[in-house]
Automatic annotation (TrEMBL), chain A:
Keywords: ATP-binding, Nucleotide-binding, Transport. It comes from Candidatus Segetimicrobium genomatis. This is ABC transporter ATP-binding protein. Residues 4-247 form the ABC transporter domain. It comes from the Bacteria. GO terms for molecular function: ATP binding; ATP hydrolysis activity. One of its GO terms (cellular component) is plasma membrane. The keyword Manganese does not apply. Pfam families: ABC_tran, BCA_ABC_TP_C. Transmembrane segments: none annotated.
From TrEMBL, chain B:
It is found in: Cell membrane. It is a multi-pass membrane protein. Keywords: Cell membrane, Membrane, Transmembrane, Transmembrane helix. GO terms for molecular function: branched-chain amino acid transmembrane transporter activity. It comes from the Bacteria. GO terms for cellular component: plasma membrane. Pfam families: BPD_transp_2. CDD domains: TM_PBP1_LivM_like (cd06581). It comes from Candidatus Segetimicrobium genomatis. The chain crosses the membrane at residues 26-49, 61-80, 113-132, 138-161, 195-218, 244-269, 281-305, 317-342. Its main location: membrane. This is Branched-chain amino acid ABC transporter permease.
Length: 248, 351
């Protein structure tokens, strides 16, 4: 069995079938890209997998355990973390505290009421190391709201990463940032997948980025999976080209 | 749904341990103020500050310190968790009434008994109220806290054979530390000296404990919930449960303040259960500055002076307080602390 295995997922919003019978899987240590035009259902699929939404039909299994109706917190505990397309950070907290919070939560130490957060040296060291991995170590003391857009995107991913997941779901980690920062973000992610043995699902619009970093590409269109394969296969697929140009 | 939105560039760091420049002077000021408070009863007749040391002024300060504890506790919810409660009178008044009922029915005069009863009743009340209120946020949360506290006020008013209705319950001079410190002599001497120190000591403990809570991993989790509820959920924090914890802790410390208030005032009347008293706690906190830890302390003390002297000057004192509140929100949303911070930033820039 793959790490994550979803079958027959459906989710409608009123008349719109955002996700319409999708089968989807992720192997361990695999970097899968989800591509498709706006409204193809990519974000909805990620929301279903991460637990933000509950599917109307279908099932999701993670490490051979059914998690279809499992709440967010338990999915995180099981090892599924996500980042957000629209950056979701703790804006008044410093970059360090943002990451540290993920670490505290992961370790169950947010229950500590009468101990200074600062006294937890290992958590501090680890948080600084995560910031270093994402090139944010100089900004450790800056409130999240004071970071540049690219840095905020990185911090958003760093928060998910600090939970030490087995599977990380990244919803457009490079949208709204400059070309050079895109490389920084994707290099960081690809390196983590390689070195820390985690699996990643990345929603991405930039096909250059997708072809350069993915092991496998899943192309969605109008709520359905249109094509699936290695970057070479997808590059050769005429339907993909047509859909990307909006003709399908 | 990110709750209260603050403008971050203007915000003082809630975390007092942060910012290498800000810490040292702040620590010195705090130490100096603490020392002044400790020595105050012996400074009568000293030039410049002697007037502050008169028994009347010391009793005023005692009131201020009691309010400060309540405002600090309240701010664990407002400033740290992003929840505006309009029902904290229930915990303050509930604790004071617990002390009153202890006297009336069990003839207990021990201050520690009052504190225990106050703390327990406020904690239980907060646990019950909280379990209902934390299901909601923003205005719905505020309205619910207000409504529930009004129920308690109505009970205190209507069950007059228990609570003496509007006459209230009288609280005699309590026995401190099981009679270890003398309580004999006149009431003014007791309140302005013995009880002043008693309250000051508990005030220090409360500030220290709440300070640690605010800077603990738990406190950080509350701030995370305040900043971004969805993301807090997605780093694995049980948002509703943590809101409830915050509510209970906040209520418990407010109860400590209420228990200390009872003998100081000598009487518990339903008005400290009324929602307008909750409003006063909100006022104190905003006055001092809810975006910093120490703001509510200054706010509690300042509010008490404000009320005392404004009442003396005009019978329209409530209107005057209202005008001050409006001006505060418009001109100095960071409160008294914000003015100090602004001053020290200017000073540093000019250097």
């Amino acid at each position: 069995m793959p790490l994550l295995f979803a079958q027959g997922l459906r989710k409608s919003f009123g008349e719109t079938r955002a996700v319409d019978g999708v089968d989807f899987f992720v192997e361990s240590e695999e970097l899968v890209s989800l591509v498709g035009s706006n409204g193809a259902g990519k974000t909805t699929l990620v929301n279903l997998l991460s637990g933000l939404l509950v599917p109307d039909a279908g099932s999701i299994a993670f490490q051979d355990t059914d998690i279809t109706a499992v709440p967010v917190r338990d999915r995180i505990r099981a090892g599924i973390a996500r980042s957000f397309q629209l950056v979701n950070l703790f804006d008044q907290l410093s970059a360090l505290d943002n990451v540290r919070l993920a670490i505290f939560s992961r370790d169950g130490t947010t229950r500590q009421v009468l101990r200074l957060a600062e006294r937890n040296r290992p958590a501090r060291e680890e948080a600084l190391e995560v910031l270093r991995d994402f090139g944010l170590e100089d900004k450790w003391d800056t409130p999240a709201a004071g970071l540049a857009q690219g840095e905020r995107k990185l911090l958003d991913v760093a928060l998910a990463y600090a939970l030490r997941p087995k599977l990380i779901l990244l919803d457009e980690p490079t949208s709204g940032v400059g070309t050079r920062e895109k490389g920084t973000i994707m290099d960081a992610v690809a390196q983590l997948v390689r070195e820390r043995f985690l699996a990643a699902v990345i929603v991405e619009h930039d096909m250059d980025v997708v072809f350069a970093y993915s092991h496998r590409i899943v192309m969605m269109h109008q709520g359905k999976v249109l094509a699936e394969g290695t970057p070479e296969q997808i590059r050769a697929d005429e339907r993909v080209a047509a859909a990307l140009l909006g003709k399908a | 749904m990110s709750g209260v939105q603050h403008s971050p560039d203007a915000a003082m760091p809630l975390d007092t341990a942060r910012g290498a420049h800000g810490v040292q002077p702040a620590l010195w000021y705090t130490a100096a103020l603490a020392l002044l408070a400790l020595l105050l009863p012996f400074l009568e007749g000293v030039p410049v500050i002697g007037w502050l040391a008169s028994p009347f002024q010391r009793i005023q300060l005692t009131y201020g310190l009691v309010f400060s504890i309540a405002a600090l506790a309240f701010n664990l919810l407002l400033g740290y968790t992003g929840l505006l409660s309009f029902g904290h009178a229930a915990f303050f008044g509930g604790a004071a009434y617990a002390a009153g009922l202890l006297v009336k029915y069990l003839h207990v005069y021990s201050m520690e008994g009052f504190l225990l009863a106050g703390l327990t009743s406020a904690t239980v009340l907060a646990a019950v109220f909280g379990s209902v209120c934390v299901r909601y946020t923003r205005i719905f949360f505020s309205i619910l806290t207000l409504a529930l506290s009004q129920v308690l006020w109505a009970l205190a008013l209507k069950f007059f054979w228990i609570t003496n209705g509007t006459d209230g319950l009288s609280i005699p001079t309590p026995i401190l530390l099981g009679g270890l410190v003398g309580t004999a002599g006149d009431k003014v001497r007791f309140l302005s000296f013995t009880y002043y120190y008693y309250v000051l000591f508990i005030f220090f403990i409360c500030v220290a404990v709440m300070g640690v809570i605010a800077a603990s991993p738990f406190g950080k989790a509350l701030q995370a919930i305040r900043d971004n509820e969805v993301r807090a959920q997605f780093v694995g924090i049980g948002v509703r449960r943590y809101r409830w914890y915050a509510f209970v802790i906040s209520g418990a410390f407010t109860g400590v303040a209420g228990a200390l208030f009872a003998p100081l005032n000598g009487l518990t009347t339903p008005d400290i259960l009324h929602w307008t008293f909750s409003g006063k706690i909100v006022f104190m906190t905003v006055l001092g500055g809810f975006k910093s830890f120490i703001g509510p302390i200054l706010g509690g003390v300042a509010y008490n002076y404000l009320e005392t002297y404004v009442i003396k000057t005009t019978e329209y004192w409530q209107m005057l307080l209202g005008i001050i509140l409006v001006a505060l929100v418009l001109v100095m949303p960071q409160g008294i602390v914000g003015v100090f911070a602004w001053g020290s930033r200017r000073e540093r820039r000019n250097r």
